[in-house]
Amino acid sequence: MKPLNSNRANLLLLFTRDPFVKLVNKELEYYSSDDDSLIGFVSLDREDYTFHAMLFDRDSRNKYCLVSMKLDYCSIEEARLGLEKLMDTYVRNEIALRKDIPANDFFIPVTKQEQRHPFFDKLLDKEGFFTAAKSVIEELSFHFEDRDGNFVDQFQSKNGFDARIWELYLWCYFREENFHFSYDYDAPDFMIEKMGYEVAIEAVHVNRKQSIEEPANIPTLEEIQRKMEDEIPLMFGSPLYSKLKHTYHNQPYWELNHVKGKPLVYAIADFHADMSMTWSFPGIISILYGIDQKAIHHDDGTISLESESGIVFQKGELRIKPLFLDEQFKHVSAVLFSPCGTLSKFNRMGVQAGYGSMKNKLFQIKMCYNVLPNAILPNFFGSIVNESCHETWADGIQIFHNPFAEIPLNPALFLHAGHHFYENGLIRSVIPHNHIISTTTYNIKNFPSDPPSFTFQSADKFDEVIKKWRM
To answer: Are the C-beta atoms of 371 and 304 separated by less than 8 Å?
Structure first.
């Protein structure tokens, strides 16, 4: 028996452990058998403070499942020895582990080459930049339920890859927040439940406007400011409004029997251009609440917040009001957004779990909320991604609550998200420590040394580091 990286254990067991059991048991140490076929953990029972040993093996679908356990040890040392004995004496029961449904395989090509998304082809490259991401998605696929039967085809295609990556990311996040899933209905995309509370989630994304073949082009600050006036807010508003009109069996989602009386959340991601999710975030606040907030730093060192509310957006001759002020949006409890639901997220999670090529190095730069008084700049962090890092699926999740919703969303159900509320013409935000606003991952091949880690607020210092490492 040997120690197992906690990041890998959490990934392998994410959809194996029952969320309720996870809440009442604190997992302390993770181990694998010497041949890596078995994994297990030692945990503390939060109720009676005894220790448990849990052993897991893969079934015929490659899903890890609980195969043996010993409970109520008096000390962690006894539980550790108990787990080692479970591994040494374990005999695999092929009949008990046999499942009628074969294992999923997202990576057997079923889409014609000319229709494939280039990122899918990159996932197939065994020496490429995304080998860690492929390992993560492969492990997740063993647990995935393809309700509509076209997930794999869309996951591989130019038209469907972004949407399916976003759905996989949301699926992982909701499980990390200890939700159960109901697969009894085809729509909306997720019906999740925790402690008796159910929430309906519909995934939506901003379609790609930049050609896949075009190189990434991050706009200048002046271009971003200009785009934020109408273009970016309306870009988010269009798919959200279209989703509002979407029906299932000729009924709006909120009138479906399994959704009626429950919060309905739209989860949106921005894929309109490469890296666009790193800077388009403010457009959501504008289109939802009609608010433009600016922090002004005065010469005497004080900070004042200038807020303009009641903004109306112009599209040709059409004037469009903020979505949460539209009577039709009273059925939508909140809008969820994240800048992190991309392939780079899966790559980072994979590297932290010990997957990927040793030839490649990931360097992450993230911009996080700065909660210090009079702070006008966010915090910047830059560091190499490795197994000592601990990133969660919740990093970067933002939930914007509708102040006029008929059925409000309880923020306590999403403990690790950032929550934003409209109050007296301003946005009040409740944010976890160092919560991500945006993040960029640099995938570096055959780099001779690790780039230096850094933490700062100075834009000049940021530019200096970028220039030094030619990022």
So the answer is: no
Which residue type sits at 438? S
Q: Are 399 and 409 in contact (CB under 8 A)?
A: yes
Dihedrals phi, psi of 93, to nearest 5 degrees: -105, 95
Q: Say how far residue 124 (Cα) sits from the centre of its chain.
A: 22
Residue 345 · residue 169 · CB < 8 Å: yes
| CA gap 341, 168 in Å, rounded | 8
Q: In whole angstroms, what is the distance from residue 129 CA to residue 132 CA?
A: 8
Q: Which residues of 324-340 are buried (b: 16+ CB within 10 A; e: fewer)?
A: bbeeebebbbbbbbbbb
In this prediction, residue 297 has a pLDDT band, given cuts at 50, 70 and 90, of low
Q: What is the DSSP string of 341-406?
A: -SHHHHHHHHHHTT-S-TTEEEEEEEEE---STT--S-EEEEEEE-TT----TTTT-EEEE-TT-S
Query: Distance between CA atoms of 289 and 326, rounded to whole angstroms?
Result: 10
pTM of the model as a whole? 0.92
344 with 365: CB under 8 angstroms?
Answer: no
| Longest CA span, the chain | 75
Write the single-letter amino acid at 404: F
Residue 207 Cα to chain centre, angstroms: 18
Q: How far apart are CA 213 and CA 99, in angstroms?
A: 42
Q: What is the pLDDT of residues 384-394, one digit of tens each?
A: 999 999 999 99
* Rounded Cα distance, 378 and 375, in Å: 7
β-pair partners for 456: 380
Whether the ω angle into residue 188 lies within 30 degrees of 0, i.e. cis, is yes
> Which strands make up the sheet holding 25-32, listed edge to edge?
2-3, 25-32, 39-45, 51-58, 64-73
pLDDT score of 467: 58
Summarize pLDDT for 418-430 with one digit per residue, the tens. Answer: 999 998 888 889 9
Round to whole Å and give the CA distance between 374 and 305: 10
Cβ neighbours around 220 below 10 Å, total: 8
- Of the candidates 192, 156, 153, 154, which has an alpha carbon nearest to the alpha carbon of residue 176? 192
Per the listing, tokens 């015929």 go with 60
Q: What is the tens place of the pLDDT at every residue in 92-104?
A: 999 999 988 888 8
* Other Cβ atoms closer than 10 A to 355: 22
Q: How far apart are CA 268 and CA 233, in angstroms?
A: 13
Q: For 334-373, how does the pLDDT look when each residue is reduced to its tens digit (9 = 90+)?
A: 999 999 999 999 999 999 999 988 778 899 999 998 877 7
* Residue matched to tokens 């911009």: 367
